[in-house]
Automatic annotation (TrEMBL):
Keywords: Aminoacyl-tRNA synthetase, ATP-binding, Cytoplasm, Ligase, Nucleotide-binding, Protein biosynthesis. PANTHER family: TRYPTOPHAN--TRNA LIGASE, CYTOPLASMIC, TRYPTOPHANYL-TRNA SYNTHETASE. Residues 1-21 have a biased composition (Polar residues). GO terms for biological process: tryptophanyl-tRNA aminoacylation. Its EC number is 6.1.1.2. Belongs to the class-I aminoacyl-tRNA synthetase family. This is Tryptophan--tRNA ligase, cytoplasmic. It is an enzyme of class 6 (ligase). It is found in: Cytoplasm. GO terms for molecular function: ATP binding; tryptophan-tRNA ligase activity.
Length: 395
């Protein structure tokens, strides 16, 4: 069973529950925290948000679209109803951590197998409103973040990346306005927990994250087509925005966006929190050196192993809380090898130092490759992605 969940079709009521519902876990677009060492109780969250877990049947359906080990031929792919991918990032920090890459790795894979346009929204306005950052500072951080996103392997002929501060206007703003007219203060209070002393900027913002779900926001890509369906790969904390979007879509005669959520990469100290850019000892940054990665994992990665070698050999390690194992689950490609590691660590045959060595190597490789690709990106290429342009698709 995958950790990823997708919204079900019934998820379109507003005022569902506020994000501080009935569990101890706090998951909303601004906070992620829980009390359990095994991390967020996604099963409870799924019920609270009205999502559904991706089960084997759905995975099988997904896989049936792909011949094993092979991409569908483009003739077959183009025979499918066309759709586009939309995701985004709030540029809040100059240094991304490996957890930030997770939704982009997955987005890149979706784009590769389906060969569809991708839109990436940089919500510099959101971070201005919530984090009190300076406008000029944000501009620089946005471009830095875009470089990291491009380094995940995207292609400017298939991808448009925009900052809200620059792209706001014309077709996009018209959609923002239409959404703003349809959603009341009462509704965003219910969804996001806004109060009377929140700035009016925050209250109006959700419409800005909703609007790119509609193809009419991008006439340079979709021409006059207003009905191209959208799939949004994102972390599950972004769900409230899209519950709102799915509610307004039919009233605007637009298709509802579909969602596919990723879970959070846990912090080094344990799965009680997600990795956070502001805590260097709790995160592995994409700028870390091989040595820094090694030291961080050895020093800070929470271990589910025994206190002593004897105890570990006797009782085995607990993969559910062991951060090294959890990271391998995210980043190691080989299923058989992962199953072997789980078995050997749980039985006590594989020691904590040994599983740490495995995750160190894996992270060093991913980060080093990322750094090489990022270094090769110049200002010209940034411009190619960020200037409104027609993509290599005909609509
Ligand atoms: N709000 C998101 C963040 O803070 C950024 C974002 C904008 C986004 N549009 C999106 C994320 C669509 C996922 C999908 O990171």
């Amino acid at each position: 069973m995958s950790d990823i969940v997708s919204t079900s079709d019934g998820v379109n009521q507003l005022n569902l529950e506020s994000s501080s519902g009935d569990t101890d876990d706090v998951v909303d677009p601004w906070n992620v925290a829980c009390n359990s060492a095994s991390g967020i109780d996604y099963d409870k969250l799924i019920v609270r948000f009205g999502c559904t877990k991706i089960d084997q049947t759905l995975l099988d359906r997904f896989a049936s679209l792909l011949p094993p080990g092979e991409k569908l031929h483009r003739f077959l792919r183009r025979g499918l109803k066309p759709f586009f991918l939309y995701t985004g990032r709030g540029p809040s920090s100059g240094s991304l951590h490996v957890g930030h890459l997770v939704p982009f790795f997955f987005t890149k894979w979706l784009q590769d197998v389906f060969d569809v346009p991708l839109i990436i929204q940089m919500t510099d306005d959101e971070k201005f409103l919530w984090r009190g950052m300076k406008l000029d500072e944000l501009q620089k951080i946005t471009l830095d973040n875009v470089r990291d996103i491009i380094a995940c392997g995207f292609d400017p002929d298939k991808t448009f990346i925009f900052s809200d501060m620059s792209y706001m206007g014309e077709a996009f703003y018209k959609n923002v306005l239409q959404i703003q007219r349809l959603v009341t203060f009462n509704q965003v209070k219910g969804i996001f927990g806004f109060g009377d002393s929140d700035s009016i900027g925050k209250i109006a913002f959700p419409a800005i994250q909703a609007a790119p779900s509609f193809s009419s926001s991008f006439p340079h890509i979709f021409g006059s087509k207003k009905d191209i369906p959208c799939l949004v790969p994102c972390a599950i904390d972004q769900d409230p925005y899209f519950r709102m979007t799915r509610d307004v879509a039919p009233r605007l005669k637009y298709p509802k966006p579909a969602l596919i959520h990723s879970s959070f990469l846990p912090a080094l100290a344990g799965a009680q929190t997600k990795m956070s850019a502001s805590d260097p000892n709790n995160s592995v940054y994409v700028t870390d050196t091989a040595n820094q990665i090694k030291n961080k994992i050895n020093k800070y990665a929470y271990s589910g192993g025994g206190q002593t070698i004897e105890e570990h050999r006797e009782k085995g390690g607990n993969c559910a809380v062991d951060i090294s194992y959890q990271y391998l689950k995210y980043f190691l490609e080989d299923d058989d090898r992962l199953a072997e590691i789980e078995r050997d660590y749980s039985s006590g045959q594989l020691l904590t130092g040994e599983i740490k060595k495995l995750v160190i190597e894996e992270l060093q490789k991913i980060v080093a490759e990322h750094q090489v690709r990022r270094k090769a990106i110049n200002d010209e290429q940034l411009k190619l992605f960020m200037t409104p342009h027609k993509l290599n698709f005909n609509f």
